[in-house]
Specification:
Blueprint lengths: L2 H55 L22 E5 L4 H4 L18 E5 L3 E5 L3 E5 L5 E5 L6 H21 L8 E5 L4 E4 L7 H7 L5 H20 L2 E2 L8 E3 L5 E3 L6 E2 L25 H17 L9 H9 L12 H9 L5 H14 L1
Length: about 350
């Protein structure tokens, strides 16, 4: 073996011999640091105990540790309204136990209990609709303690609705106003026996051509009465026309309407909106007239315009000016002119309908 290889072997042996010494140094340092940390923690703990003892002896209260700031509970994604029978129910079902009339203490988060005023006959987006024992219809706003601003919006809509009824007064084309309570925003209206037009047409068969023609004229007359007092309905659809016992048509549900050019809080679906409509636009009477064309189509045909297509496709076709075929209908030209914008007032619609029916 030459001298260079002997030197290399000696170096390797020295390195292996030094490795245990280095590891021992690291372990010793780690133990020393851990020991110092433990001593520091013990000393700090003793100081804290001594300080709290001093505070107690001097009559002061130790400052509690900082607690996390409670987070404001989020608004539930879904609200469930649970009806609780009101006193009116006792006469109808005297066998109900007293517990049925009590609001439970442990309601799940997102559930809102309310005491009913009558039997439910409808459901609005912002209101409860019930029939009182007297037979009249009562509407009152939905409460929402999770979102007070939203609840106030519901109450505002009810104030808008009663304002419309007061503006229009006694009119054969709207339900009769019976009572109004401003504190609870509770509106009472006359009961119309045959419900809404959409449900009636869907369920009933054999509606005569004469009745259908009368409905189109009454729908146009109802809009004429609204527009005359500077109200744009903004949600002219078959579900918002009601039928009395004699099958006469009346327009209803003005909670989201525009009064004197105010911004509405509701809009009809795409089949009842003119092309290019958006929420930034002011409400126009022409918007109601377009929707009237779609309602008259429903009255005459029994289904909504382009009912077999999804709404996005309806919007696309309406924007391109492509509406359902109406040439076979006795009032088809009037419906088309409502959609095409040639008729811009309810009075013009009435005149055109009268002329079409007279010529048939």
């Amino acid at each position: 073996m030459d001298l260079s290889k002997q030197a290399q072997s000696a170096t390797q042996l020295a390195a292996h011999a030094a490795l245990p010494i280095t590891m021992l140094s690291i372990v010793a340092r780690f133990i020393r640091v851990s020991f110092l940390t433990a001593v520091w923690q013990f000393a700090a703990g003793q100081c804290a105990i001594a300080w709290n003892t001093v505070l107690k002896l001097t009559g002061r209260r130790p400052k509690p540790p900082c607690a996390p700031i409670p987070q404001k509970p989020s608004v539930p994604r879904h609200i469930l309204y649970r009806p609780i029978p009101g006193p009116w129910r006792r006469n109808e079902e005297p066998e109900l136990p007293e517990s049925a009339y009590q609001i439970p203490d442990d309601m799940p988060y997102g559930t809102i209990c309310y005491v009913t005023k009558g039997r439910r006959v409808g459901r609005g987006a912002t209101t409860h609709v019930e029939q009182l024992p007297s037979g009249h219809i009562v509407k009152y706003p939905k409460s929402n303690p999770y979102h007070p601003e939203e609840e106030e919006g519901h109450r505002r809509d009810m104030r808008t609705e009663v304002d419309v009824y007061r503006r229009i007064g006694d009119c054969p084309y709207v339900p009769r106003l019976i009572d109004w309570h401003p504190e609870s925003c509770c509106l009472t209206l006359e009961y119309l026996e045959n419900g809404d037009l959409g449900t009636f047409v869907t369920k009933e068969g054999g509606i005569s051509a004469h009745v259908r023609q009368r409905w189109t004229l009454q729908a146009a007359a109802a809009l004429k009465a609204l527009h005359a007092v500077n109200v744009v309905h903004c949600d002219v659809t078959q579900r918002n026309f009601m039928l009395d016992g004699d099958l006469n048509l009346r327009i209803a549900d003005f909670a989201g309407s525009s009064i004197a050019r105010s911004m509405p809080t509701i809009a009809a679906g795409p089949r009842f909106r003119p092309p290019g409509w958006n929420w930034q636009q002011k409400a126009e009477r022409a918007h109601d007239i377009f929707a009237l064309g779609s309602v008259m189509y429903f009255i005459m045909v029994g289904v909504e315009p382009l009912s077999d297509l999804p709404e996005y496709e309806v919007e696309r076709l309406f924007k391109a000016g492509r509406f359902p075929a109406v040439g076979h209908l006795v009032c088809g030209s009037v419906i088309w002119d409502c959609w095409d914008g040639k008729l811009d007032s309810a009075e013009q619609v009435m005149e055109s309908l009268t002329a079409s029916y007279a010529a048939a």
